[in-house]
């Protein structure tokens, strides 16, 4: 079925408009941040509220990981880390299995989500609309980090380069995904003169694993995906390497950014940060899953620096961070 990208983006905008109740605008510097937030220090993140009445210190912390694949896979993968997080904070921690990026952003904006990993493409929306404060990403033990967007097809499809997608179908994941939509859209237009709906038929699978399985099973002739997800699926024997062929590989992008809601108390934020950085990966469920994509530590980072390339891709695609 042919899907209208403009309609999908419009639906996302409508969803964002419904997120929580917007507080009265404050007279302060904020850049692209929603009017509920301030950015006095210029780090492009929502500042911690100065009024103690606006701070939250919940008894139960809600954690959500970006919905790149089946949430059930990651509930188990994160179990040891969440136990560690409970010990470090002295609070109960619950894994929230979100089904899509919009729901995850909505949950944080409305105060129902306290700690999260937002995927590369949705990080700017989470930062600007939901007050997300990212501070770390996963990296390999030697400090390397990130992933590449790849456009894949299946052997014998007749597609040997992105130019061959013209007149055919290409699977994206969701409009908020960097590697699943934003980056390939910008690259296909800039490098190959191809635009969705004009030069090829776009379809949206919803998640990276859906797109990868769709190509492996020949349901889609081609798809734009994050190769870190594909690596883990190959390691779990969900697909075999000979079922897919890569026809394009991008520059390296930052991977999922982890952080907190902006309005947690400073003391609680510090305990959460410490939990990420003093977590011992060896022998844990987290390492068992993420070593499949060569990740084994949490690396400190800044949104302003690490997400610069993503904001440039968004600008090229005409993406707005306005919540309403």
Notes on the structure:
This protein has 324 residues and is α/β, with parallel strands linked by helices. Helix content is 35%, strand content 19%. The protein has helices spanning 5-17, 71-77, 79-89, 101-109, 123-130, 178-192, 208-216, 227-235, 266-277, 285-290, 303-306, 308-316, and strands spanning 60-65, 92-95, 115-118, 132-139, 147-153, 169-172, 201-204, 222-226, 245-253, 257-261, 297-300. The strands form 3 sheets. The protein has a 6-stranded mixed β-sheet with strand order 2-1-3-10-4-11, with helices on both faces. The protein has a 3-stranded antiparallel β-sheet with strand order 8-5-9. The longest helix has 15 residues, at 178-192. Mean pLDDT is 90; it is low at 1-24.
